[in-house]
Write a structure and sequence with these properties.
The chain has 77 residues and is α+β, with helices and mostly antiparallel strands. It folds into 2 domains: 38 residues, no CATH class; 35 residues. Helix content is 39%, strand content 26%. The chain is built from 1 helix and 3 strands. The chain has a 3-stranded antiparallel sheet with strand order 1-2-3, with no helix packed on it. A hairpin with a 2-residue loop joins β2 and β3.
Length: 77
């Protein structure tokens, strides 16, 4: 992990096209702004984790559905 110290209105550049700017420091919180190309998705970590979990659940559900269909296909009549 790279650790940097930045002051208000200072920024860092990531991969030449993403700029992270320190907008404010207040009440122990840091407000940041991110300038990035539109095709780059940016999420808060807790939202990203929730999306990952929902995707995993969807895959398991789809696999279970496929297994059920196979069982019904080969079930003796």
């Amino acid at each position: 992990m790279l650790v940097l110290t930045r002051k208000k209105d200072e920024s860092i550049i990531i991969d030449g096209n993403i700029e992270v700017v320190v907008l404010a420091l207040e009440d122990g919180k840091v407000r940041i702004g991110i300038n990035a190309p539109k095709e780059i998705e940016i999420y808060r970590k807790e939202i990203y984790i929730e999306i990952e979990n929902q995707n995993k659940e969807a895959v398991v559900s789809k696999q279970n559905l496929a297994q059920d269909k196979l069982k019904n296909l080969f079930r003796k009549k």
